[in-house]
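Pasting as-is:
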Amino acid sequence: MTTGFASRTTTRPSSRDSRSLEPAEWTAAGVPLLANPREVVKDLLSRHLPTPVTAVVAVFAPEGRLVASASFSGSTGLVDGWEHRNAILAHLRRVLPHDLRRRTPARTAVLLLCRDGPPGWTEQDGAWMWGLRDACGLHGLRCGAYVTLARDGWQVLGENRSGRTPNSGHLTERPGGAAALRPQGAPEALRRTAAR
């Protein structure tokens, strides 16, 4: 007779172990739809000028007005939502008081991830989704949409809504390393806006 633990037969940890959400879990969570995702992406793109592997967390009032937003570097290679949750929560705390005293959340947090690669869900996205959902709960917010932005365009994962513009191809690197919008009719003052 042998005693001990049976070895795991799967090479991929379960979503519970890795703190990641599968697309079906995200869809079943009842995340509220963005009223105008293209405009949300355009607004966050102009405010933060994200480069690939940049995350932008934005909080919207019930009527859809942007209340606060912050951008930060999203770590590559992490498929554990714990780290993403901590980063999102730290930036939420910097820009917005929590809503934990409310009986039900009124404001909604949305996450935009600027990245390279093909469209569609990845394990990395599952970790970001878990992180967003958990950070929202800890800050008293409703968990909103998760949007990816790449050279091919933007996509709201879990909603099957996407578009070719805007895209991360609108961004270029300045010699000093700061991201800037390519001139496409935007005012010069807007192109010089520093990422917040």
